[in-house]
Structure formats: structure tokens, C-alpha cells
Amino acid sequence: MTIVISNISKSFGKVKALDKVSFEVRNGEIVGYVGLNGAGKTTTIRVCAGVLPPDEGDVLIDGYSITKDKRRASQNIGWIPEIPLFEKDFKALDYFVYIAGFHGIPANEARRMGREYLERVGLGDALYKKLGQYSQGMRKRFALALSMISDPQNYLFDEVLNGLDPQGIVFFRELVLELKKRNKAVLFSSHILSEVENIADRVVFIHKGRIVANMTMSEIKSKAGSESRALEEFFFKLIGELK
User: Fold this and answer.
1) Within 13 Å, how many C-alpha atoms sit on residue 186's CB side?
2) Which three-class secondary structure state does DSSP give residue 90?
3) pLDDT tens digits for 139-155?
4) Which residue of 31, 93, 106, 238 has the fewest CB atoms within a 10 Å radius of its CB?
5) Is the distance from CB of 180 to CB of 152 less than 8 angstroms?
6) Are the C-beta atoms of 65 and 59 separated by less than 8 Å?
7) Separation in Å, CA 30 to CA 82, 106, 198, 226
8) What is the tens place of the pLDDT at every residue in 79-127?
9) Alpha-carbon distance 83 to 103, whole Å?
10) Sheet architecture: strand order including 56-61
11) At what angle do helices 230-242 and 217-224 cross, to 10 degrees?
């Protein structure tokens, strides 16, 4: 197991965003994280990434505690937030080189990597464009390139499909399946249930800050009683039962 989420709780004022959330993401596994708006998906991923401390509980990344050994744990994570923010006046390739420097990659090597990675995510013709000129979809693609700099074992994708055009969605699907083949652990949240169904091995459902189901796609299809749109059918049935 590479991502172990253990009884994490988080409150914002009187609102309990997470209530003893626990689940795991193993090597070579793609886990979809599904819930209504405000259910706690982004909060969970931010805690896993180490940018938001939990009130209780912990997350182990390859055995390293995100609360007690954040530096070591964070080195093993590639994280893409729902809304990536970058310095607007930086040109894309220059910013890639700047971030690569934090990983100890020399400038010449980082520039070569930057050209290769940005070409790979479909930004080869926008290497020298300022990030402030990037569309939302382009920023998501750029964030994908940055997340691969250190070739981490674990990936956290928060609503990364939002703002991507159909070509970008296909690219993301192919990228995640490639990461699975390379034995990486992938956790991603999305409102696009059809894409979750297409690529997830297992789906974790969160509702009002609590995990309400954790099932493989084959189990979901069996419960739904159909192969077509099984996840959507199961999800809305589950939410209806919880109301």
C-alpha cells in the first residue's frame, strides 16, 4: 500500500468537513473518489497532499507520515489541485525549469525535460507563452506536466477533468492508465462519472464528510445490475438512500 488514509477528521469552524475518513490506495491501483459538491473530496486530497493539516488522524505516503514527516511524504506525491495557480508573468518553460530546481534538477536538464513534458501534454506550441495567457484547460495540462517532474510513486488528482476539452480528457485517461501500468498509486476525484467508470479499479464514495461505500467497479456493476452507466445508477441510488 502506498497511500493509507487513517481516521482523518477536519472541521472549518462549526462545519465538520471530514469525519474519521479512512481508505487506502495501493500500488498499481486507480481509485475514483466520488461525492456531491461539498462532500469532502477536495479537503481529503488537500490533507493527503500535506497542504491542509488534519484535526485528527494521519496519512501515510509510502510509510511516511504527512503530519510527522511531511518533507519525506511530500517527495513521493504528484498533486494537481482543482484550480492550479501559477505566477502569471512566467513563461511556461521558464516556470517548469524553476519548479524543477526545487527537485535538484540542473537547468539544462530541466529545460530538456520541460520541452519533452509540455509537448507530451499538448503544450508544445505554448512553451514561451505566459501562464497568465493560459486557459483553464491549458493550466490543467501544465499542472500535469509539473506533477511528473520527480516521477513520484503516488498521484493525487482533484477534479482534474474540469476545464479539459475532449482531447484533454482522452489524454488524461491514457496518462492515468499508463501510470497504473508503471505500478503507481492514483487517487482522483471527478464529477464526470462516466470517466471514473472508464478508468477506476475501485471507487470510494463520500457523503457529508463520511465514507459511505468503498467498492470495486465489478462490485458496483453487480449491484447496479447493468454494465451501462452502472456507476451513475449506483451513485444516485446510494445518495437517495442516505437522504
Assistant:
1) 30
2) coil
3) 989 999 999 998 999 99
4) 106
5) no
6) yes
7) 18, 32, 11, 22
8) 998 888 898 999 999 999 999 998 899 999 999 999 999 998 889 999 9
9) 23
10) 15-25, 3-12, 56-61, 64-65
11) 70
Nearest to 151 by CA among 122, 182, 177, 173: 182
CB distance 188 to 157 below 8 Å:
yes
Q: Which of 125, 72, 128, 134 is nearest to 96 (CA)?
A: 128
What's the one-letter identity of residue 168?
A: G
Q: Which of 166, 228, 154 is nearest to 193 (CA)?
A: 228
Q: Which residues contact 70 (CB under 8 A, 6 or more apart)?
A: 50
Residues 6+ apart with CB under 8 A from 49: 74, 77, 79, 81, 156
* Beta-carbon contacts of residue 69 (< 8 Å; ≥ 6 apart): none
Q: How far is 57 from 80, CA to CA, in rounded Å?
A: 23
| Cα–Cα dist 200/217, whole Å | 7
* Element housing 42 (H / E): helix 41-49
Identify the pLDDT of residue 136. 85
- 88 burial (CB, 10 Å; 0-12 / 13-18 / 19+) is exposed
Alpha helices in 75-135 (DSSP H): 92-101, 107-120
Minimal CA–CA distance to 41: which of 32, 50, 53? 32
DSSP alpha helices (H): ranges in 50-135? 70-74, 92-101, 107-120
Q: Are strands 154-158 and 77-80 parallel, antiparallel or unpaired?
A: parallel
